[in-house]
Specification:
Elements lengths: L1 E3 L4 E5 L5 H10 L1 H5 L11 H12 L9 E6 L2 E12 L4 E8 L8 H16 L4 E7 L3 H9 L3 E12 L3 E11 L3
Parallel strand pairs: 5-6
Antiparallel strand pairs: 1-2, 2-3, 3-4, 4-5, 6-8, 7-8
Helix pairs in contact: 1-3
């Protein structure tokens, strides 16, 4: 499945062949990405990424979560997806990351907007959450720009590299917002 955002940008559902692009992006910008992304420390070889992609693509139906590569002019630039979904209560969370050289172009904001439409209209979710490390201002600006409501701080909500916990800002948007 592909979600077309504009003439240059699309979300393409994750497939096994994407593992090499993902691994190369992580490997080539490890220092930049590891500041906010705990999985970078555990992604040491291509097999690690292949295992991740396989777990997403071949998840059992009751555990399946939509994950997409973000592509600009068909080039891999990042990942975005639904996570920690509670289908009974129709709540999901959006997680995302973007390669450093593609920052500050509105790519994530446009991608999150389209994924929200997909989650609300096609998947029937009522609530979407985004959690961002308190110090990660670029990431937190995305839900702010899209009209998400700030709900508060989740204390020590994520364990980053080097065994350091970070507080998370929690934002939400409801289908009827």
């Amino acid at each position: 499945m592909t979600i077309k955002i504009d003439s240059n940008l699309e979300l393409r559902q994750l497939k096994l062949s994407d593992a090499i692009d993902i691994f190369n992006a992580i490997s080539s910008q490890r220092e930049y990405l590891k500041k906010w992304l705990p999985f970078v420390a555990f992604t040491q070889e291509l097999k690690d990424t292949e295992n991740f992609v396989n777990s997403v693509v071949n998840a059992p139906e009751d555990k399946f979560e939509y994950t997409f590569t973000i592509r600009k002019q068909n080039e891999f630039v990042g990942l975005i997806g639904l996570k920690d979904s509670d289908k009974i209560n129709r709540i999901t969370e959006i997680g995302y990351w973007l390669s450093e050289k593609f920052q500050k172009q509105g790519i994530v904001t446009k991608s999150v907007k389209e994924l929200c439409d997909f989650a609300f209209k096609k998947q029937g979710f009522n609530r979407i959450q985004i959690k961002c490390a308190v110090e990660n201002k670029s990431s937190a600006n995305v839900p702010k720009r899209l009209g998400f409501k700030f709900e508060g701080i989740e204390r020590d909500g994520e364990l980053l590299s080097e065994n350091i916990f970070t507080d998370l800002e929690v934002y939400s948007k409801l289908k009827n917002d």
